[in-house]
Hints:
This protein is mainly α. Among the domains are: 8-62; 324-450, Cytochrome Bc1 Complex, Chain D, domain 2. The chain has helices at 8-16, 25-59, 62-66, 106-115, 130-133, 138-150, 173-181, 195-207, 211-214, 255-264, 275-283, 290-300, 324-328, 336-352, 369-372, 377-385, 413-427, 436-443, 450-454, 460-482; strands at 80-83, 86-89, 232-234, 237-239, 266-267, 271-272, 387-391, 394-398. The site of one heme C has 28 residues, from strand 6, helix 14, helix 15, helix 16 and strand 8. It is found in: Cell membrane. Its cofactor is heme c.
Amino acid sequence: MPKPPVSPGTSFGGTLFAPISASLRPAILCLSALVATAGASFADETSDLVARGRYLATAADCAACHTAPHGGTPFAGGYAIDTPLGKIFSTNITPSKEDGIGTYSEEDFSRAVREGVAKDGSHLYPAMPYTAYAKITDDDMKALYAYFMHEVKPDDHKPQKTELPFPFSIRTSMAVWNLLFLDKTRFQPNPAKSAEWNRGAYLADALEHCATCHTPRNAFMAEDASQALAGGSVGSWYAPNITSDKVAGIGGWSDDQLIQYFKTGNVPGKAQAAGPMAEAVENSLQHLSDDDLKAIVTYLKDVPAIGSAETTSRADFGKASVEVEALLRGLPGQSPEENGYHIFSGSCAACHQVEGQGNDHYPSLFNNTATGEDRPDNLVSTILYGLHRKVGDHVAFMPAFGADASYTDRLSDKDIADVSNYVLENYGNPSVKVAPADVARIRDGGEKPLIVKLAPLAAPAAIVAAVIVLAVIVWLLSRRRRSRPALG
Ligand code: HEC
Ligand code: HEC
Ligand code: HEC
């Protein structure tokens, strides 16, 4: 059971002083009344701290990774994070003494969350976003600890253990990685910016850890700080450029559109949140206060713009003027184009409508960032995995057509490539082409970083040596990078 907030006032007044002689009673009553008031305010303070910790845990989205899918006990772990290295299972962070963090002191807890080192001294993999949490302030860590210890229900159950292949199974190698890539500096407010900007920067960088998905990673899977928020792969999905660039980023979105996206995950004629972003909206962003969402937008709109070769923003690709009938006329039977058209008619048009224009319930496929991006990852992933996002009482749902689909709905890699090309050609960015091999790659969890591609090629020991040598080189380079001024 969670320890109830300590309340010394009640037990003092009631039991401890009971046998004391009547003559002393008035004085003691007086004293115990004083203690009771102090106790009450102590309890209030604890419950304030717990409430603050609850909000912070929501903003930091701890539940998303530490709760097993399909109704797992909150914070009891067992959620598998698909990384290019293999599946990493989250741990039980309920205050269970046996299986969770019940024996963690506040210091142990801080060290795990901000430095990636568990109580037993073992190193955590950065699938736990401690590189972002390193910026969390001491006060906020205190509140988070109070929440986990006093309010989260202990669950005595050990989730599945993480077993990565050699050499990644050697957790101490993370010590080298941390030396290179973990910046332990707490959040430093920028005095040249407003309080709202700083609140937004703290929320986005430290708690919400937007950069863990939206910043591209280098060959060692560390964030490339020179490309902050310029877009990065998250397994099968792609977290787009959300810098202030008007074309490549979100500079063209109004403040209200961004807030609506964070609150609901859906801005008609612009974007819907699927995959990992649907989870961020569902578990975290929709629950933030309006002031905090405004603060994030203020900060985001001021993140240095990083452009791309694209000249049209991904939300601006409209419907092609070509008539479908004309397009199909004269095509040889069963051409990929024709196959794409048939799959679209059979599997997509019922919801997204024959012209891809959508309706009140289903989004249009033009003026849609998933079809206008200069890469097809989110279009293909949405077809493979579908979409599920619960906001308030409303559920946005699109069925999966990939591996999880029912037999009748299942589409092959070629079918998905054909329907994607049909959608891109008519409603999205027509310069993007999808081959069946691209679908297979996305099905398999996306592009693998260099460090993983090397693994099967050489003897594991040689890899470790190579990794260390390369790491030292990167470290030397990163010292130059670090000496540049920070973001903003
Ligand atoms: C993006 C996913 C993700 C998020 C978000 C996340 N964690 Fe974790 N966390 C993990 C994974 C995965 C592990 C296990 C890593 C490993 O085994 O190396 C872990 C491990 C931990 C541990 C070590 C537990 C132990 O068994 O020793 C603690 C403590 C922890 N997380 C607390 C938190 C808190 C508090 C939050 C929110 C502030 C949080 N985590 C958010 C993925 C996440
Ligand atoms: C767990 C990974 C993850 C985290 C954390 C995350 N995002 Fe995302 N984000 C994504 C992915 C993936 C998409 C693409 C979703 C789609 O199109 O269906 C996305 C889409 C977006 C979009 C819409 C872009 C577009 O053009 O459609 C915005 C805006 C955005 N994220 C902002 C944020 C902000 C701000 C944060 C932090 C407060 C954040 N995201 C945290 C993964 C993430
Ligand atoms: C049963 C209805 C239904 C069917 C069938 C369907 N969709 Fe969807 N689709 C949806 C819904 C609902 C959404 C999300 C709306 C929201 O987020 O509010 C969506 C979203 C999308 C998105 C935007 C995803 C993102 O990440 O931004 C794309 C692209 C898409 N669908 C393409 C397709 C294609 C291609 C097919 C056919 C292979 C298809 N859909 C079939 C209902 C459907």
